[in-house]
Amino acid sequence: MVSERPGRSAPIILSGSPADLRSDAATLIRAAWRIDRTRFVGQIAYVGLTGLIGGFNLLLLVPIVNAVAGTDAGTALPLAGRADLASVPLVVLLGAFVVLSVCTALLQRGSAINASTFQPLLVDELRTQAFEAILAARWTFVLQRRRSDVLAIVTMGATRCGMAFQQLIRGAVSVVLALSTTVVSLVVAPAVTAIALVGMLGLALLQATVIRPSHQLGVAAGLRSRELQATMQDSLDSLRLVRAHDASTVWVDRLTRDFETNREVQIATTRRSADTSALSSVILAVAASILVLLAVQLDVPPASIVVVLLLLARLYRQVDGLGTTAAQLANSLPAVTDIAALTNEARDAVEVPSTTSDRPGTLSTDSELPLVELRHVAFTYPDSSHGVRDLTFTLPRGEITVLTGPSGAGKSTAADLVLGLLEPAGGELLVDGAPLTRSDLPWWRSHLAYVPQETVLVPRSIRENLVWSVPDGATDEECWAALDRAAAGFTRSLPDGLDTVLGDAGLRLSGGERQRLAIARALLRRPSLLVLDEATSSLDDETELAVIDLVTGLVPAVTVLVIAHRRSTVDAGHHVVRIADGRVVDAGAR
Ligand SMILES: Nc1ncnc2c1ncn2[C@@H]1O[C@H](COP(=O)(O)OP(=O)(O)OP(=O)(O)O)[C@@H](O)[C@H]1O
Ligand SMILES: [Mg+2]
């Protein structure tokens, strides 16, 4: 569950509404607002002040140019009682110009620093919130998503969100500067500026035609980057087989195709904006010539013509820059939709609502009551017709129950139901005599330890692999004791002991060695219920017997659910439940 923590910003409510430009931008602004209001308001203040001071500075150009040209035409600035600046010495005007320029430069510097501090904050916060929401979501939510998609959205996608934010700020600066330039230009030469504005509007409209295609290209870029991530990850995951089957060309070809499509999307994006920019430059040259002719016709003083041309050139740069920024922004914004949609969907699928369980902290010791009871439990995987149809069996307290049956019968699904990872769609699952509710899950999980069918070890030290899921941690002695009990004594001969790093760049363990580490990890949790899903499948007969001895030694303090095919393990159970095609076909004490 995503909870509000002291010292951290409140969760961002992201809108997962349709992939629409405006809603994407609104989502980004809302996210920025919620993450750090002070910085956000500061950013707006920087942008506004830059525009205002920049405008005053531009206005000063008129008296400066007039003073240089030795004419007093147009020196009266129509501001605050029409201050007449004709008598102000040139050096004072230039001094004021320099001071205002320094202010503008400082403001722009502050704005850039503020934005670049804010940007990584925003990116990290978006990532954290997406990640937290995914980790707290129901298991079926996780099952329905490609891992590579999630990775692409939370890594590359979030970086694009940061870029979108930078572009949004740059766009806002351009708008404010364009407005201040327009106001000044209107003050200096209203008629010429009005005509020029019509041209600028045309230019802006021309540039606006790039925005939608850029947005669509941005959507395509997101899809392509996810495909690229999937291909890379799939090929790395299958590396052993790729080499053994000498099939690397298949993956290289796939990657090359993905890279090519990615490049095409990027080139298409750039081509559109480059075309518009080139066309705008041509239009500008023609428009500037016409304006000069017009200004001469309208008897605009020469100093004002120079200033107006300067202003209009500046305005053009801002409008052109705004066009480019808007196109880039439109291109980056779909990444905001992606991460917002992922976060919101994960939050909607939150496993444990905020209500707390009213169960007592400990499990009851009533030996008559089974620890777990499944009554006609049914479950179907999302977008599938598979699952379990009718499971009725109990896990008697302090005893070993073995679940067996053919591959695909529903054994792992039954284990996931017992663990509360999956929620029954029909029937009832009782723990300690009462139906297991969502709010009971944290309580229930605190009593569980699980060894999954596919061993999960991370490329870190043995100690970290053992301890990360133990709530109160474990001492080295406890780790060694658990390893010994799990028949993982082989670790004692490792030169770095518990510090031995596993995985890609470290020690590569055999399947059976991995399973024994996973069992040791489960033991360290001191569970009330231990679920072993084919946890001995890779072990030799002798090591398997050692693990069976361990399990037998755990009861009656621990209740055990063992999923197994092998006769030797099945025989170790007090009760055997045989399932086939999602139904219990045989259950009884041995
Ligand atoms: N994530 C999933 N999405 C859709 N169907 C699934 C999913 N996981 C399992 N299934 C299907 O549900 C059924 C039960 O699968 P389950 O993994 O529980 O079988 P199992 O008895 O553990 O098999 P095995 O002995 O091979 O591990 C199978 O038909 C399987 O194809
Ligand atoms: Mg299974």
- The CATH topology label of the largest domain is ABC transporter transmembrane region fold
How many separate structural domains?
Answer: 2
What is the helix content? 55-70%
List ligands, each type once.
Answer: adenosine-5'-triphosphate, magnesium ion
- Summing up helix and strand content along with how strands pair, one would put the structural category as alpha/beta
For the record, what CATH class of the largest domain applies?
Mainly Alpha
Query: Which homologous superfamily in CATH is the superfamily of the largest domain?
Result: ABC transporter type 1, transmembrane domain
The average pLDDT is 85
Distance between the termini: 42 Å
Structure characterization notes:
There is one protein chain. This protein has 17 helices and 10 strands. The strands form 2 sheets. The chain has a 6-stranded mixed sheet, sandwiched between helices. It has a 4-stranded antiparallel sheet with strand order 2-1-4-5, covered by helices on one side. Helix 1 packs across helix 5 (147-188), helix 7 runs antiparallel to helix 9 and helix 7 packs across helix 10. The two termini are 42 Å apart. It folds into 2 domains: 21-348, Up-down Bundle (ABC transporter transmembrane region fold); 372-589, P-loop containing nucleotide triphosphate hydrolases (Rossmann fold, 3-Layer(aba) Sandwich), CATH 3.40.50.300. With 590 residues, the protein is an alpha/beta fold. Residues 1-19 and 73-82 have low confidence and may be disordered. It binds adenosine-5'-triphosphate and magnesium ion. Residues 143, 381, 384, 386-387, 407-413, 453 line the site of adenosine-5'-triphosphate.
